[in-house]
Design brief:
Rossmann fold; 9 helices; 5 strands; 229 residues; five-stranded parallel sheet
């Protein structure tokens, strides 16, 4: 009971990273519950109306899965912080993207995502490239970018928000699990969260009375990589 498979995704379709490929993976797992990286207001916007042009691939996949399966799908994310605007985040990443060293990392990520899809997004290579990007961002702020104080402030707020969102998502997954029984669930989350969310799962499992049987999806061996605590 309480088996959860964490699947890293990308919200935008590109090459082999698409809703049909994700649907195949979910079909192979046959979950009774899908936890979604969505706050309640976005959940209502995407599921209670017609298809929207900005619909993420995960939602396309889940809508297709719901046509033939009677399951629960639960939004576990929270609303964005009012202290950080979308334009601030875009400005920060646009500055990083002016540098060749950063552009090369993003190009490699996009290429591997398109080429290998969820095999890459759920791999050690993907985790390593995100680690390299974070190191590069910090190096650029320290050595390469003017007006660093403003950028550092935005960067700090951004990562505080990411940390808070991940904590709340896990909190909501555990709360749902305490109040509802199920055998198999899936948690879909953007690949940028993969490293930190896996670390937080291990921490949760040392503190929570309710033990969840976490599995980290791996393309070569989908049943491998159970969390060790």
């Amino acid at each position: 009971m309480y088996k959860i498979t964490l699947i890293s995704t990308s919200h935008t379709e590109i090459g082999k990273c698409n809703s049909d490929e994700l649907h195949k993976i979910i079909e192979s797992i046959s979950p009774e519950v899908i936890f979604e990286e969505l706050p309640n207001n976005s959940f209502d916007r995407f599921y209670k109306g017609n298809q929207l042009p900005d619909e993420p691939l995960e939602i396309k996949c889940i809508k297709k899965y719901l046509q033939n399966h009677n399951i629960k799908h639960i939004p576990v994310d929270i609303d964005a912080s009012p202290n950080l605007s979308t334009s601030d985040i875009e400005y920060m990443f646009n500055i990083f993207k002016k540098y060749d060293v950063y552009k090369k990392l993003e190009y490699e990520q996009d290429l591997l995502t398109a080429q290998d899809g969820f095999a890459y997004l759920n791999s050690k290579k993907c985790s390593e490239l995100f680690d390299k990007k974070k190191i590069t961002e910090k190096n650029l702020m320290e050595f390469g970018i003017n007006n660093m104080n403003l950028l550092f402030h935005t960067y700090k707020l951004f990562h505080e928000e990411q940390d808070n969102r991940e904590n709340e998502m896990l909190h909501n997954v555990y709360n749902y699990s305490k109040e509802n029984q199920y055998n198999q669930a899936v948690f879909l989350i953007g690949s940028a969260h993969r490293n930190s969310i896996m670390q937080k799962i291990a921490e949760y499992e040392t503190k929570e009375k309710l033990k969840l049987n976490w599995t980290f999806y791996n393309y070569q061996n989908p049943t491998s990589s159970n969390v060790q605590v």
